[in-house]
Amino acid sequence: MMGNNMFGNTMWAGHWLWMLVIAIAVVIPAWRVCQRTGYPGWMGVLILFPLVNLILLYVIAFADWPADKTGDHNA
User: Fold this and answer.
1) Quick check: 37 and 67 in contact, CB under 8 A?
2) pTM of the model
């Protein structure tokens, strides 16, 4: 039990910093993968949303990549 102290119903401030670090560590590679496959880089942010991230992975894995159609392989 947390009791009636002032921290009982609040989240630890470092939690938000840790979550930001993890989000950045996940979004940057997803952003680059989207760019290299020919999709807009901002689609990498979708990796943060549950279920949407699975859809994004399936789209990248099984769709025809726009980069293959344009011949842009050095993004």
Assistant:
1) yes
2) 0.71
